[in-house]
Specification:
Number of helices: 5
Radius of gyration: 15 Å
Helix content: 40-55%
Largest sheet: 5 strands, parallel
Number of strands: 7
Distance between the termini: 9 Å
Structural class: alpha/beta
Order of helices and strands: EEEHEHEHEHEH
Shape: globular
Amino acid sequence: MQKLARIPVLNQSVPVAKILLVDDDADDLLFLSSSFSKASPEVRLKQAYSVREAMIYLNRLSDEQLPSLIVIDYNMPLQDGLDFLKILHEQERFRDIKKIVLSTAQSALINKVCVEQGADACFTKPLKLEQYRALAERALEEFINN
């Protein structure tokens, strides 16, 4: 499990979760960002609108700078969430990052394929803001705080 970075704040160490959000929909990114920020003020978020943009970002980071969690939209143009999982799974340095896939069409087959490609969880994409908040809280609890 990847350790959280710590930053000094008034002689204290505050854990910082680094999360990469990958979704082609600006509204979904806004809802996700807002929900994660409200769930944990210490979270550091980066947004990417495509697999290509996400890979450019990740490849610029040192191993110590990599995110603790990547939240991936399953259905994106050109390269989808499954393509992204395959790319991440093929590279050793990305394998320990926790990955959550969000899909509007949840099915056992999507779950199975995503987990086979390295996803830690696959959830139905929220429809309401309250559901985004619940998702963020659950993700932080299950994949960051333990």
